[in-house]
Amino acid sequence: MTTCNMKSTYITLTIITKLFLSIQCDKCDPHIGWDMSPVQELRGQGLTEIPPNINQNARELHLQSNKISSLGGKEFFNKHNSNMEARVVLLSCNRITSVDPLAFFGFEFLIILEIKYNLLTVVPDLSVVSTWFDSLALDYNPIASLTNAELLRKYCEYKV
Fold it and tell me: How many CB atoms lie within 10 A of CB 44?
């Protein structure tokens, strides 16, 4: 079993769970392509939290390069009291130190989640959405210790 111990250096970690497998989802609209999907661009606006004006129908949410420090439970769901349509959520280059296990509750179609270049010291428990997403990018977070067993427990056991 491999363990990565990093004290002052940053660990590079990207988890891809369904590599080269096609996504089969009866709720997905096959006629909507990535190039036709609405994108909500909120990059670099100095946001300290998820704003209330998030478009629940946006297929991509770009929230990089802000000052968001944590993601609370049902963070996005509480803004609208309904499910989010986003397939891609980009939260890189913020100041995120913690992610509540229910932060992404209500995302039925989430397949790519990027939380790179933040201040996470542990791999967040995303078991609520881990059966849906294909790619979780946690590169360049100061995650101090990580074992393969931890990854398997947190993500792989939810895949069937």
Answer: 12
pLDDT in tens, 33-69: 444 459 999 999 999 999 988 888 999 999 999 999 9
Dihedral sign from CA coordinates of 63, 65, 66, 68: positive
Residue type, 17: T
The tally of CA atoms less than 13 A away on the side-chain side of residue 31 is: 0
Closest CA to 89 of 125, 117, 59, 67: 59
pTM (whole model) above 0.70: yes
* Fold topology of 8-18+36-160: 3.80.10
Residue 67 Cα to chain centre, angstroms:
16
